[in-house]
Records
---
Amino acid sequence: MERLLEFIKQYKRNRSAVVGFIVVVLLISTAIFAPIVAPYSPDIQNLADRLIPPMWDAKGVSSHVLGTDDFGRDLFSRIIFGSRISLMVGAISVGVSLSFGLVMGIVAAYFGGKTDLFIMRIVDIMLSIPAILLAIVIVSILGPSLFSAMTAIGIVGIPTYARIVRSSVLAEREKEYVIASRINGSSNIRLMFVVILPNCASPIIVQATMGFASAVLEAAGLSFLGLGAQPPTPEWGAMLSDSLQFITTAPWMIFYPGVAIFLTVLSFNLMGDGLMDVLDPKLKDK
Amino acid sequence: PKYGGVLVFGRSGDSVALDPAHVTDGESFYGSTQVYNNLVQFKNGTTVMEPGLATSWDVAKDGLSYVFHLRKGVYFHPTKYYKKRNEFTADDVVFSLKRQFDKTNPYNKIGGSFKYWGAMNMDKIVKDVIKLDKYTVKITLKKPEAPFLSNMAMDFASILSKTYAMDLLKKGKADRLSRYPVGTGPFVLVKWIKDDKMIFSANENYWEGKPYIKKLILKVVPNSSVRAAELKVGSIHVMDFPNPEEIAGLQANPAIKLVKQEGLNVGYLALNEIKVPAFRDVRVRRAINYAINKKAIVKAIYAGFGKPAYAPIPPTMWSYNANIKKFKYNPAKAKELLKEAGYPKLSFELWAMPVSRPYMPNARKVAEAMQADLAKVGVTVKIVSYDWGTYLDKGEHFLDDSCILGWTGDNGDPDNFLNVLLSSNAAKIPASNVAGWKNKDFDALIAKAKVTTDIKERTKLYMKAQEIFADQVPWVTIANSLVVEPIRKSVMNFKLDPMGKRRFNKVWFDK
Amino acid sequence: MNLLEIKNLKTYFYSDAGVNKAVNDISFEIPKGKTVCIVGESGSGKSITSLSIMRLIDPPGKIVDGEVIFEGTDLLKLSDKEMRKVRGRDISMIFQEPMTSLNPSYTVGYQIDEALRLHQKQLNKKQRFEKVVESLELVGIHNPREKYREYPFKLSGGQRQRVMIAIAMACEPKMLIADEPTTALDVTIQAQVLDLMNDLQKKKGTSILFITHDLGVVYQIADEVVVMYKGHIVEKASAKELFADPRHPYTKALLHSIPVPGVTPRKSKLDTVDENVDYLSFPKEIR
Amino acid sequence: MSEIVYEIKNLKKHYEINLGLFKKPKIIKAVNGISFNVKKGEVLSIVGESGCGKSTTAKLILKIEEPTSGQILFEGEDITKLQHHELSEYRKKVQIIFQDPYSSLNPRWKVGSIIGEPLKLNTDMSDKEIKERVLYLMEKVGMHPDWFERYPHQFSGGQRQRIGIARALALNPEVIVCDEPVSALDVSIQAQVLNLLLDLQEEFNLTYIFISHDLSVVEHISDRIVVMYYGDIVELKSVEDLFNNPEADYTKKLLSAIPTIKE
Amino acid sequence: MFSYIVKRLLWTIPTIFGVTLLVFSMVHLTPGDPAAAILGDKANPKSIADLRAQMGLDKPLYEQYFIYIKNLSHGDFGRSANSNEPVISEFSDRFPATVELSMVAMLFAVFLGIGAGIISAVKRYSIFDYGSMFGALAGVSMPVFWLGLVLIYFFSVRLGWLPVSGRLGYEYDIDHITGLYLVDSLLTDNIPAFWDALKHLILPAIALGTIPMAIIARMTRSSMIEVMKEEYIKTARAKGCSRFQVIFIHALRNAMMPVVTIIGLMLGSLFAGAILTETTFSWPGIGKWLVNAVYQRDFPVIQSTTLIIAIIFIIVNFIVDLLYAFINPKIRLS
Ligand SMILES: Nc1ncnc2c1ncn2[C@@H]1O[C@H](COP(=O)(O)OP(=O)(O)OP(=O)(O)O)[C@@H](O)[C@H]1O
Ligand SMILES: Nc1ncnc2c1ncn2[C@@H]1O[C@H](COP(=O)(O)OP(=O)(O)OP(=O)(O)O)[C@@H](O)[C@H]1O
Ligand SMILES: [Mg+2]
Ligand SMILES: [Mg+2]
């Protein structure tokens, strides 16, 4: 409790991180209450109302705040519903990366030697293929879909987590409190997960937050390439690539989904930055 | 007309390769057409046949052999990468065609499968290609086939230089054939920068006459908005595939004009008789035809770039019958017919394809419009879609109730539509006649036309067949789309080709 | 005669949590050719005092008040440029961690040479080289000509600390500040380094400000001792007086908390510095 | 007083360091054949310069590392051969206090859990009993019972070291290995810990193996002293003997180097 | 140093081996028959069987892998299922465009990133520091494909300052020497073409360089700050070094070590990031081509491109490590 208060106090010092946190909270509530927040269903088409510019444009109408797309769908509503997808993608990909990366990292660092060498070879191989490329390869195996994109991004993230976990476990493993626990007869599992792991939480939390941001960004990128979410899913990246042909005639269709991606990613990054300040000041300097 | 100038054609994608016998995509043909000629060709902007590298041809009475008399004094152009200037002879014709089916031809194994040869069933048609003398070639067939001549005008039948091919083979560089073309056509390939541009120079000695423009550049600009922007600033002169939304803006530009051409295509809703018993009743089919407001659909979804279709072949095709029965929008009549047939409440699945095609810019939207129209006459439809491969596959196996599909002509022959899409032969799994419609009279007409070589006779037969179609309506024909090409006003005499080629040898600049 | 006089020096650190008065109104003098030691527990402000003299305090720290009079001029009033001339030429400094005090990217020779280049512009390259070699010899490094080209990571801790001293002594400064220069070293090497500093002082007449928390070291080298506690000076005396007669309770506790072989009865209870006592409430003992 | 707890015979520990694919691994002889006894109730100190093998010896005695060769007899039994159950019995009898009071306490655990861990893992005591025992130990090392719920970072170095001592006492060990227990502490705090260690020894009749490089401290606390130099023992004597007539050159050097306050 | 290089080089072998295994297993992990996938909708069973035989899919897996490796060792990366051209020649046609774009983007990122990082670190807590660090965070949060679109919209469509797409205007022609237009135009003394190529590069390079720039800026800043805390900086200052000397002679060199590593790591991802940028700017590099290959399930292309990029990436990292070793005497001299 005391720790939490101290944590909040320190976190509050980083003002942009607070803004990031607020935006994230807003985003999560938007995603949860999307059907209430959005004035229209994201898929409802109205061919009569195609390509209406945003409200503040001379030709805009107040019933479509951000205008409509080429199917006459309300852009604002689509962006709102898009938040659900982005957050889901972030959560699931981070979940995948984290769970695998965590176990790999701990096992590698704790057992060391050949085990470490073997796991880190796998990690190196994965890292030797640039992330987006690896994601594309995975998507091309699974076939383009939102699910594939999430899986791909999840897999691509594993080595990063594995490395971070490994290096912090390595640092912790040598500390005397671990030796103390071992002398007192702790089992390997207990040493790994009860004794050491909680002390590696900070970099992991920070990385998960940042990783969330990059997962959202990567998913949008894959969808933009047509390898992720497929239309008419209101995914922001897919919306962007769908509206590419309207860059001159209906630029708002490109502008706002992009802004949505940017703000989401930025707010998670700001939050991650703030967490880093508080939880892991050393990491920030690395 | 004036000589000179560089013309830049802005297109949406790059060619895959430049050996037209191996590729199937339009963008590849854009490139190869500039370089190669065929024995026969379509008159610029039409589906009418005219002499190409063959000045004339004789057809045997039984329709089983064609003798082509070749044009003399035509030379393959020397290029940067192949300096020899070889004369065009019968050997080249024999080589170009036989490599596609003669297993002993050294090029039969090179470059992968001959996709179009297979797709057009040429193995079942062509028996042999024989050189009679230096300037005469005889092609013998296994069975009479009226569309054969049209097939010879298709890209896959382009004539390549045998000598060049053999020289490459000797050097062990047979691969280069698809990348460094040497042809007899109006333009000579100078440079091909993948995914960027192809640069051609005019063939000074072109047998049809030297092209007016000096240089032709096919530039790849995938994004249509970007292409439009480039057209506006004049960094391209002819723009391929404009986005319908953009056209109004382009038209308003004083430096730009639009060239239009009705596409050789048709989009339709096939009513699957095999799966849905109700569709076996002609009254139901007619009712559905009455119930759908084609005009409204064409206006809203084709953005005006299409025309309501009534026949199974497009109006630009020879033998098109303009006088067949046309189902005008009439919901009352539809209701009546349905009642009469005993289906006042009908419901079925309506499949909408997931991709956009020239004949169908947005199938889902069309489906939604149809859904609304049909609801008004008491028919409930559920819209279903699968990914493209599955969609086609299921359709071929008659697993749909009804599905939206379409067809673009390959060779300007009505047989390519009527036989492929509506004959009983084509209703066998995997079917291209996805409606599963079988009509003996229709079949008889089509079969006869296929073995008749006289074009007037064939025209009559096809007109008749269209009448049967319009009476029996196995499809709801939806539209023939209009191909629009915005070009700079300074570009003169640019004609669109119904088969989708882009030809520039008659184009000139007016400044 | 005093080389350096510190008068009412105050150096504070500012943070959201408030002001940390790291050095809080201290005054003492460093006589010419003598060694003054500052002792005190960790965090008592020893290092900050020395950095304040060199004007190397970075934000959020600030020298709030006071004077640092070196040969009659107040260093705190000099311009940055003038101050730079004082550093390294008149006053040099060495730090606790020999492992990290040398730049890992440059050779030992380069780093000594740099001091000469900055302050002895009249020397040419060759003369400087000779001087560097000489100073390496002076601090007792064998093969100085070879060692010139070595990178710090190849040297042992004791050798590095010698190099640090060579850098500090290169321009023959009038004063040397040594901030716990031997804490990281083994006792035997510590003894060598202390001897070396003693020798140099004798040869060159350098004044030394020596910071340590090891009273044994103080006993061995100090002329004057300053005892700091929480930013204040609680006792100041000559080394002899201090060890013979510590007056301030904090100093007493500090002295008696260390067992002295042969003096402190073995296994007897030691005196302790009590965390609960506010030693500042006792009067300061300045002698 | 002369009962022998430990008998260490020709103990060796060599580390291999791989320098590269093509180089022979370098062998570091951290401990190179040392032999000595530890008597019950005495304080045996090990001194020597950094890297001479003090901590390695401690690790071997605690069975954190396996020796390369040699024997460690504890109450007559060779501990290098011990297996699971016997090992945990052994560990109840021998504990350690570490050098660094910061890294030796798990920063995520409360003081109560840290001190209670040995009890939890090695006894059948209930949580309540454990808590009682922990509070008792805390009192013994001079800590306030309220601190039970606190985290290590809320304490000063000296207080942290007390937590470590309490943990070492939890299982009522016979021997405690102290690996430089005061060298990371401020001078002003060292005395508190030394006093505490001496008090506890008296109260619980403990045997200490005390590692340090500070000869003044060693002199104050030990009965006998082992002087190590590069993995070997150069001298083993009672305190008085060692300080009055050092024999080995290295010992002499060591003694002359300590800056002591002699009046 | 020599043994370090050899060791480092040997380490890349298992990695490359692993990548080939990964890439090889790709085709076999794909659900369905790869041959059918390549031939598409209109294939008949015979041609599928033919293709299977041609691709060697009828042989046991280990044998297929063996053949695959054998072919690779002869420089045979297979043929594109789509164009039937050797993948390696298709790749090398497009790769220079990607390299040129990546290099220019990297230069942009390195100069601006390091510059901003240094200033931020030196003027810590200043407006510039806050501004540029927020900017850097915004930079890493930027969807590059979107940034590219926005740049096109403003600078090309609205303002008309810069070309909309492509590498070179049609009125220019550059002789192919290296395939890098900037280099080739200079080599052939074709200055107008150089400027035109440069103009075409500006927007895509900014779009592609933004994220690396942001990362480099953050990295430089934190590394600088870290280094500025080091004792040897204090030593330098105590010697009387000026601020400039402290920063550029003592701090920068040490601070650059982690930055160099990260730059190396980013070069690889820059090639990959080019995929998105190229799509936006119709840049005729490997990105667009690769994405098309994925659409068309052209596995030979995907496999080989992945492999080639991975190998390039490994080589680049190797070079960076050498560079790192070179600036770090500890490694250089051991
Ligand atoms: N950069 C800084 N920011 C904030 N406070 C600081 C800073 N540097 C030192 N202090 C504070 O100044 C006080 C004195 O520190 P100083 O380093 O002078 O102690 P010291 O006596 O040298 O201790 P040690 O023996 O541990 O070196 C401490 O309370 C410390 O917390
Ligand atoms: N795990 C290990 N692997 C390799 N070498 C080791 C290992 N542990 C210790 N050593 C080496 O063994 C030697 C003795 O180390 P040890 O830790 O016992 O020294 P020490 O006397 O405790 O020194 P200090 O006073 O610095 O704690 C050293 O040279 C050390 O580098
Ligand atoms: Mg200090
Ligand atoms: Mg040790």
---
Amino acid sequence: MNVRLRLFAGLRQVAGFKEKVVTLPEGAVVSDLLGQLPSSIVGRTFYIAINEEYARRDTALKDGDLVALLPPVSGG
Amino acid sequence: MNVRLRLFAGLRQVAGFKEKVVTLPEGAVVSDLLGQLPSSIVGRTFYIAINEEYARRDTALKDGDLVALLPPVSGG
Amino acid sequence: MSPTKLFEITENPLSQDDILRRVSRADCGGVVTFAGTVRGTTATDDGERGTDFLDYEAYIPMAEKMMARIGDEVMERWPQVKAVSILHRIGRCEIEEPTVLIAVATPHRGDGCFEACRYAIERLKAVVPIWKKENWADGEVWVEGPRQPELVVGDEQ
Amino acid sequence: MSPTKLFEITENPLSQDDILRRVSRADCGGVVTFAGTVRGTTATDDGERGTDFLDYEAYIPMAEKMMARIGDEVMERWPQVKAVSILHRIGRCEIEEPTVLIAVATPHRGDGCFEACRYAIERLKAVVPIWKKENWADGEVWVEGPRQPELVVGDEQ
């Protein structure tokens, strides 16, 4: 299955891309996706959103999901 | 001495005047002025201001003072 | 100093953008504004009570002086407050229009801007000489606020 | 329903008069508005720190959804709150400009409008996906907020 990986703010800047498609085996969870992150962002703190909702590392993924990695927010 | 007596809001409406000059003997205090109020406003609740500052019934008056009678405020 | 007054009684419609400009400062990141607006309907124990419009009257110079004093009290109680402005309208005010605006600016939101703004509206309703008259198609009445224990009553029944 | 959104991310300058109109209702007499504005100078232990301007980025659809959820939380915690609006700007914001506005309307000032507004800005700063970049003549840096215990961290050192 394919999921879209989207990065924001400092993560996007460090990784050098905003969005890419990642191919994963059926049954993959968020952790499996995180194992394929570019080395430039490994070790940074972020939260996970799937289809615009906060999610966990063990949340199951399905084809077409939009997975966003969110640095700690600083709005306001 | 002469002081100006000014009324506001409901007091002004009931008394039928906004301001008038009252003549008082030298040494008069606010209570002496209140003894000369028109009967239409006797018995109503109000606060006293002399020259734009809250005052007391025993505050001494002097010639030219502006004495205002203020119904309980309802701004905001 | 800016020529714009921070404490003002006015016959003109009030603007929240205007009061924000009056208190904005480069060292402040948080501004709390309270707007008191004209209620057209008020829920009471006897059901809903309506108003057509309000008229406000003020003892203008004393009201502006008392509002400035409330600003001083705020700066004394919340030393991190950098600016306070209080504007009150007089004359005819329609339903939903703001009749009073109070803005308080602080460096950060936790520096007392919420508490100071709440304090200021309570003080205004206690001591600033302004009165409202409720108007209906068939009548009008001057509203008298609650008695203020801190003030000396001049006369009463 | 009004066509005006109550929860909106926008590139346009924010207006306190606009947000007051969005929440004004004939049954409400009190509206509290919090404005977060761009600080040009911040006092720190190491002295004064300056900023030239800020850039904001948002995950727009998720941010608007989370802001609406904060509105729901407010109405649940303060049942007398009749209307909430939250507006956040993105793009370049200059010193003293508002970047966020939160307005809460209640029938009376004691019905929770102050407390609910404070709650909403705390929640926004915790969970709404918006980020700011500080800019100086000689550089820029994306600001990361504090860690949020309620959220699961995806990865970390």
